[in-house]
Write a structure and sequence with these properties.
By secondary structure, the chain is mainly alpha-helical. 82% of the residues lie in helices and 0% in strands. The protein is built from eight helices and no strands. The protein is globular.
């Protein structure tokens, strides 16, 4: 019965209103081209704010799942979103859109950097780009945390704070922090559901 409900939900998400592989390709191509310094903020903006293909909660859940899987988080997100809306063809379209142009751009930039990377103010320019990318990541983290804190301030805020301190400040490995926090988070969620 539960499997049938999940299958019905998946088919409903793949209805006429769902994006087709071409739309997924173009959307993720745009994300890949605009996401210098990390595409997660641009992917969230595209998926949640501009196209409304995912709600804030759906994006957070998808990203949480993708962070526990091997590989780059954003590539995993593109696979999950693409397959959710258009099956294997959608997953392939989303990943190809995300990766195609940036691979070409990175190859061009790498050859330019190899030739001109130490010339003049290029090192300072690169450091400035890194600072801007850090700001984008921090802004995205705040946008993702706010709906969780707003919905469940007593349970979400402590986990966010502990994870930030453990990984960001104490430099503990992410996988160990996730393994340590997951049982407590699941127990709290299970307790609230009961």
């Amino acid at each position: 019965m539960a499997t049938q409900n999940i299958n019905m939900q998946i088919e409903h998400e793949r209805s006429r209103d769902s994006p087709r592989p071409g739309a997924l390709f173009m959307a993720f191509l745009t994300v890949g081209l605009t996401g210098f310094g990390g595409v997660l903020p641009f992917a969230r903006r595209m998926l949640v704010e501009r196209r409304a293909w995912l709600s804030e909660a759906q994006f957070n859940e998808t990203l949480a799942l993708c962070q526990t899987l091997p590989g780059p988080n954003i590539v995993n997100v593109s696979v999950v979103v693409g397959s959710r809306f258009a099956g294997a063809a959608g997953a392939l379209a989303a990943v190809t859109g995300l990766m195609a142009a940036p691979v070409v751009v990175v190859l061009i930039l790498a050859s330019l950097y190899a030739r001109f990377g130490a010339v003049g103010r290029a090192p300072e320019l690169i450091a400035g780009l890194g600072a801007g990318a850090s700001g984008l990541v921090a802004a995205t983290a705040a946008k993702m945390a706010w709906p969780l804190i707003r919905k469940r301030p007593a349970s979400a805020a402590p986990f966010i704070l502990i994870a930030f301190v453990a990984v960001g400040l104490l430099k503990l490995p992410l996988v160990w922090v996730l393994l340590a926090l997951a049982p407590f988070s699941l127990a709290l969620a299970w307790r609230r559901a009961a």
